[in-house]
Write a structure and sequence with these properties.
Layout: H1 3-12, H2 17-30, H3 34-46, E1 60-65, H4 74-83, E2 87-92, H5 102-106, H6 118-128, E3 130-134, H7 141-153, H8 159-173, E4 177-184, H9 193-209, E5 213-220, E6 228-229, H10 231-242, H11 248-265, H12 271-283, H13 286-297, E7 315-320, E8 325-330, H14 332-338, E9 344-347, E10 354-355, E11 360-365, H15 369-378, E12 380-383, E13 393-396
Helix pairs in contact: 1-3, 1-7, 2-7, 3-8, 4-11, 4-13, 8-9, 11-12
Length: about 400
């Protein structure tokens, strides 16, 4: 039985779960060739419907992140890319493990609706320039069914299976230009750089085989991205970046991801020109304008991005440094798990920052209780230093 027959058979119920599980375990142990990985991707694309964006022209764009703590860049890249002349069409996901989900963040905006029909989705992208919606069950349904089985059989951490899962959804979603944010480090699913590079290369090669313009950035996740971790807090931080403020790392990564899409599409010839265009669309307010149009088109009330308009949880506690020194490490995955079921936290200090005894390290919001705050505090190491934090952007592919 070839890969296509296996995937289609399992999706339809003709192939037994035990047989599919045995095949996944074999792939987990021995891998797949690139040709086989491509066949797996095609089979999952063919398992359901696809979104046809060809009528929107050559500038359709999409983005994928492998997931990080405090990663709210999609909320920034979508309107910013649209402000630069792209048509940003993204089907996004919810929280996975210790990492936050884009849909969860958007739903912290009162009235925002994540469900649009394919026709309304495409129409909004054409009219507004951007739309972010939940993934339809009809898009690459084999991926969801196989992922659930991978989760139950302990075969998640297979690069060919991860790559085919990621790219089947990107191909089915229809965009011509795709940028990937492959994270590595303590807070990432790909903790080792070599694994992150292999995944990035595999995904990029799949995209090219499907005639997509595609690039990948390998980015560090040894500390939270930005200052805010938590749905509403991260949404507010993303809006702050669109206003021209916000943490420097969140702003830098969002600009670089957008610039990659601009260059891939041909709207700018060089990375420097693309970056300059993106920066100008933040500065002139056009990116924030399109964000407002996007969320209003999906049900939000006008003016919801005005300062203080989005409901935020109250500050509940501030956790201070017990001693002076430098933050030498942050167990970012543990921080993500600690804050998983609470409103969140805002970090005043991160890896590489010097602190004095009694200085605030982070503030918790909502009602996280002592357990969450204590877990986050224990995940932060203060030592004599010095330390060189992992670069924000480690490699471009």
């Amino acid at each position: 039985m070839n890969i296509n027959d296996l995937v289609q058979g399992y999706t339809s119920g003709r192939v037994a779960e035990a047989d599919m599980a045995a095949w996944l375990e074999e792939v987990y142990r021995h891998g797949l060739s690139f040709t086989e990985t491509l066949e797996m991707t095609q089979a999952m694309v063919d398992s359901g419907k696809t979104v046809d964006l060809t009528d929107l022209g050559p500038y359709t764009a999409d983005k994928h992140s492998t997931g990080g703590v405090g990663d709210k860049t999609t909320l920034i890249v979508a309107p910013l890319a649209a402000a630069c002349g792209l048509k940003f069409a993204k089907m996004s996901g919810r929280r996975l493990g210790h990492t936050g989900g884009t849909l969860d963040k958007l739903e912290s905006i009162p009235g925002f609706k994540i469900s649009l029909s394919p026709n309304r989705f495409a129409a909004q992208v054409e009219r507004v320039g951007a739309a972010i919606v939940g993934q339809t069950a009809k898009l690459a349904p084999a991926d969801k069914k196989i992922y659930d089985l991978r989760d139950r059989t302990g075969t998640i951490a297979s690069i060919p299976l991860i790559a085919s899962s990621v790219m089947s959804k990107k191909i089915a979603a229809g965009a011509k230009n795709i940028v990937l944010d492959i994270k590595t480090g303590r807070g990432a699913f790909m903790k080792q750089f070599d694994d992150a590079r292999e995944l990035a290369e595999t995904c990029v090669n799949i995209g090219k085989a499907f005639d997509r313009n595609i690039a990948a950035l390998i980015t560090g996740m040894d500390r939270p991205l930005g200052r805010a971790v938590g749905t509403a807090l991260e949404t507010a931080e993303a809006i702050d970046v669109l206003r021209g403020g916000g943490p420097s790392d969140t702003k830098e990564l969002s600009l670089e991801l957008t610039a990659s899409l601009i260059r891939l599409s041909g709207l700018a010839k060089t990375e420097r020109q693309a970056l300059s265009l993106a920066e100008s669309r933040v500065a002139d307010g056009e990116a924030l304008t399109i964000f407002n149009r996007m969320i209003e088109a999906q049900g939000a009330e006008p003016g919801i991005t005005e300062p203080g308009a989005i409901p935020l949880p109250d500050e509940s506690a501030s956790v201070k440094a017990a001693k002076a020194g430098m933050i030498t490490a942050m167990d970012t995955e543990e921080i993500g798990w600690a804050l998983k079921d609470v409103a969140g936290a805002i970090f005043e200090k991160k890896t590489g920052d010097r602190v004095v005894a009694g200085e605030v390290l982070f503030r918790t919001y909502g009602d996280p209780g002592e357990t969450a705050a204590d877990r986050v505090a224990k995940a932060i190491t203060i030592g004599p230093g010095p330390v060189s934090p992992t670069p924000l952007i480690i490699a471009y592919l």
